[in-house]
Amino acid sequence: MKRFGLLHDECFKRHDTGYGHPEAAWRLEAIDAGLRESGVLSTAVRIDPEPIAMELLEARHDREYIQRLERACREGQRFIDVPDSAISHDSFETALLAAGGTVKAARLIAAGELDRAFCAVRPPGHHAEQDHSMGFCLFNNVALAAHVVRNECGLERVLILDWDVHHGNGTQHAFYSDPTVMYISLHGHPEYLYPGTGFPEEYGHGEGRGTTLNLPFLPGAGDAEYREAFERRVLPAVRTFEPQMIILSTGFDAHRDDPLGITALSDRMFAEMLRYVLELAERYAAGRVLSVLEGGYNPGVLRRCAREHMELLASG
After folding, report:
1. Residues 85-118: pLDDT tens digits?
2. Which member of 8, 61, 127, 167 is catalytic?
């Protein structure tokens, strides 16, 4: 059994995106149902959320944007920057807790107190840019976690693997020139899907040239195409990079039944991708894996796939 941490708290339901918004509190309720069906809660180490320190938040987001978001929430505005990024009175505090809890989990893993963890947080983060919100995302939880383990915890190479069906533009931009953080994304082709970034020719800049790998998929791509991408592209790249920690942007919206996706993965493929990751982590990263929730907008898919994801992290 692995020392498995779970960040899972009612506070993340306080981010109210309004009637009909796909990124809503019911997503965590679906994960709650999966947790009740599994045996994870009896063995997991609970990670209590705490707000991220402002100094750390400003390492990845401009102070002006942070203040603008806080003011917009306090004043009761309904979105920030773009209509997709809905907010409410409690959204700023909830986003601080999501980022802070994710960073806390990363520190525990880097320190050897946990082997793996899953952060069931919202709002999600991988679209959030340095100075503005995009695509439901307020603060970039995964980018902040990678920043911490690189700059505080002594790890020299960190892999961020993102299989949300939407390309993580904010995460890519955060590390585009950084050779110490590899960003690999498997996503719907940007010619067909938001946010329109993630073409194969986006592979890094300057010293970071070659440490960004984008693998876009045409509509209808399924298990066979993703499996081939892992075996031919992802595994060789990771073996060359030899990461000391793996951070997952875990979206479940590449599933064939997701209303916002264009690809056609099965439940089984999400488990298969995680098994690839766990094998790589054991070989190169002392088993260190941090998984952070991003997208996924079908309640049945979330319940089933998140349950198996957590069970594999806890015991696989």
Report:
1. 999 999 999 999 999 999 999 999 999 999 999 9
2. 127
